[in-house]
Amino acid sequence: MIITDRDRKALQLLGGVLVVVAVVYFWPDSTAAPGTPVSGTAADAPVLVEQRLERVRRMMLQVPDKEATLYATKADLAAREKGLLQADTAPQAQAQLFQILRRVGRSLPQPIDIRASEIGQAKSFGDDYGEVSVSVTFNCGIEQLVNYLADLGAQPELLATSELRVGAARDKDKILPVSLTVSGLVPRKLIPDKKGVQF
User: Fold this and answer.
1) Model pTM?
2) Please, what is the angle between helix 142-153 and helix 90-106, to 10°?
3) What's the mean pLDDT in 107-136?
4) Model pLDDT for residues 152-183, shown as the tens digit of each residue
């Protein structure tokens, strides 16, 4: 006889139900003082069993809702984690982030030429993720800058502007010198553990 995954899940759920029923059935009455003998007539026993059964039924009715919430949360997390920069190492993720910045700049109606870059240090972002950053400089008009930032925000990757510096216009075309630092999220495994002296 072959047991499928569905059968295993059903057996696990049944086992959980049996444990809950056993706990509720054999749990001592909280209204009785400790050490006092249980008193009551045989007529009270069916009423107590029915009350306990009703409590178990209410608890069991909550299980599908909680499972549905769990599955929806897992699906939402998986969809969001598709935006992580996928690479084998942190420097590769930073190179990928730089390529995204260049690609977005070139895709504008008036392209922006990314001239220089500075790679930031990879660091942890919470317990489960890491953060890599890249700083770029370029010259552009204010409309180009607004369009560039809007297009960066529309990318499927999880990116955020962490620093933006805009200088004064240098000529009659109002071209601005811009320094921009953008961060992206990566899996935590790409961030090296800091080993140092611990006190």
Assistant:
1) 0.61
2) 130
3) 88
4) 999 999 899 999 999 888 777 788 899 999 99
Mean pLDDT across the stretch 72-96?
86
Over the range 175-191, which residues count as b (16 or more CB within 10 Å of their CB) and which as e? bbebebbbbbbbeeebb
Report which residue type is found at 140. C
Rounded distance between C-alpha atoms, residue 23 and residue 30, angstroms: 13
Q: Are residues 125 and 154 in the same domain?
A: yes
Q: Where in 80-122 does DSSP place strands (E)? A: 116-119
Q: How far apart are CA 134 and CA 184, in angstroms?
A: 9
Tally of domains within the chain = 2
Question: Are residues 95 and 71 part of one domain?
Answer: no
pLDDT classification of 73: cutoffs 50, 70, 90: confident
In the structure encoding, which two tokens stand for residue 42, read together? Answer: 């045989």
